[in-house]
Amino acid sequence: MSSFEGILHRYTARNVAFEFAPTGRKKVLVMIGGMTDGLLTVPYATELAHTLEPHGYSVVNVQLTSSFLGFGTASLDKDVEELKSLVDFLKGAQGGRREAVVLMGHSTGSQDVMHYLLRHGNSVAAGIIQGSCSDRESFDQTIDQAFDPQLLATLTARARELVDAGHQNDLLSSEYSAYLFDTPVTAYRWCSLMEAGGDDDYFSSDLPAEALAASFGRLKTPLLVAYSENDQYVPPWVDKHALLARWRAATLPAVWSEYSGLVKGATHAVPEPAAQRRLFEMLVPFLTDFPRADC
Predict the structure, then answer these.
(1) Which residues pair with 15 in a beta bridge?
(2) Buried b / exposed e across 227-245, counting CB within 10 Å, b at 16+?
(3) Which of 22, 33, 116, 141 is 20 to 30 A (C-alpha) from 180?
(4) Are 221 and 122 in contact (CB under 8 A)?
(5) Residue 140: what pLDDT?
(6) d(CA 11, CA 88)
(7) Among the listed residues 88, 106, 94, the one whose alpha carbon sits nearest the alpha carbon of residue 267
(8) Looking at the chain, which runs of residues are DSSP E strands?
(9) How does DSSP assign 119-156, residue by residue?
(10) Calpha distance 103→28 (Å, rounded)
(11) 59 CB-contact burial (10 Å; exposed 0-12 / middle 13-18 / buried 19+)
(12) CA 40 from centre of chain
């Protein structure tokens, strides 16, 4: 357990974000956690703040309505709405009139970054995605529990019936929440996470070229991809090098950072000190490369 120095910002009436010391830098990296994350839960966030200090950056860890166990009743649209409020706050007088805001997502936070850049990309300087595995594919393998793919298919079909009938916000039974850390989940968010082509389905290895063109191909904001080499939530049959190559091919050359790649030795959340150093070796040159050419 640890204590952290910094500033707690209330950027809307019901949302807060924590700025790690050192605070008040004119450039800021907003750290967006993944599923079940919230304030102070991403392992490398504190060390990242110290690493970026000499380069004029503060690190702000955002708490969203979807943080911790709120993801099951939330959506990427809601996350982006709240992130836009935070970006506007940081650029305003109360937030310190920051000159540049960079969004960094870990795990499902990477989906938030993609979703945001496709809607408000001109409001931030850059985006970073780390641990950007597919939720759909991660549940297509045995992780911590006995897995029944036929049951999952049946559950998803039932949820789809509710969505199609206009009951997308209905809470599903405990059969569903058992797959999602005992978290209450709506029919919409279940389908978003579990269906091919769902709103959350940005990173699956089987997405067709047309889907990548509609996501990576539409980005106009500089993007760094830091994919964990030993991510335990990526099925062993996924070729990470080939997947990164597909994403790069779909992205405009001026958008895709040359520093993108696999974080050697990193598992999903990069708790390993050596892997954290390698991650930071990718982040620092990317963050000091601005401005970039218009796309």
Answers:
(1) 12
(2) bbbbbebbeeebebeebbe
(3) 116
(4) yes
(5) 64
(6) 9
(7) 106
(8) 6-12, 15-20, 27-32, 57-62, 100-106, 126-130, 223-228, 261-263
(9) HHGGGSSEEEEES---HHHHTTS-SSS---HHHHHHHH
(10) 9
(11) buried
(12) 15
Backbone torsions φ then ψ of 13, nearest 5 degrees = -60, -25
Position 150 confidence tier, pLDDT thresholds 50, 70, 90:
confident
Helix count and strand count (H, E) for the chain: 10, 8
- Token output for 246: 């597909």
Sign of the CA dihedral with 243 first, then 70, 12, and 5 last? negative
Residue at token pair 């836009």: 84
Query: How long is the chain?
Result: 295
Read off the pLDDT of residues 191-247 as tens digits, 9 standing for 90 and up. Answer: 999 999 999 999 999 999 999 999 999 999 999 999 999 999 999 999 999 999 999
- Tell me how far apart the alpha carbons of residues 21 and 63 are, in angstroms, rounded to a whole number: 17
Residue in the structure block whose two tokens are 């004029």: 56
Q: At what angle do helices 273-287 and 45-52 cross, to 10 degrees?
A: 40
Residue with tokens 């990526």: 234
Q: Domain segments of the chain: what residues?
A: 6-134+201-287, 136-200
Contacts of 139 (CB under 8 A, 6+ apart): 147, 152, 179, 193, 194
Give the C-alpha separation, 258 to 215, whole Å: 19
Q: Give the model confidence (pLDDT) of 16-73 as tens digits.
A: 999 999 999 999 999 999 999 999 999 999 999 999 999 999 999 999 999 999 999 9
Task: State the architecture of 6-134+201-287 in CATH terms.
Answer: 3-Layer(aba) Sandwich (3.40)
Q: What is the identity of the amino acid at 27?
A: K
Q: Which residue has the tokens 């050192």?
A: 22
- Identify which of 74, 157, 84 has the alpha carbon closest to the alpha carbon of residue 122: 84
CB crowding 162-193: b at 16 or more within 10 Å, else e: bbeeeebeeebeeebbebbeebbbbbbbbbbb
Helix (H, G, I), strand (E, B) or coil at 159: helix
